[in-house]
Model the fold of this input.
Amino acid sequence: MVRNKHKLNKFYQKLIKEENISHKKALSIYEALHKEAVSLGIINSENILEGLEVDLRIAKAINGLPS
Done:
């Protein structure tokens, strides 16, 4: 639970300024993480979106968003 939104926002702004990476670098990191997850059997590369709808419904319910 977030107790101090101002402090959290300030933290995120500082993080964004300090850890500015290029799109190319971010994509490279994502691809490496995806490859590792597939090799560990955590996700199936053939159907990566499987279960996404359920996850979205749960996230909406937790965050109190309308469906």
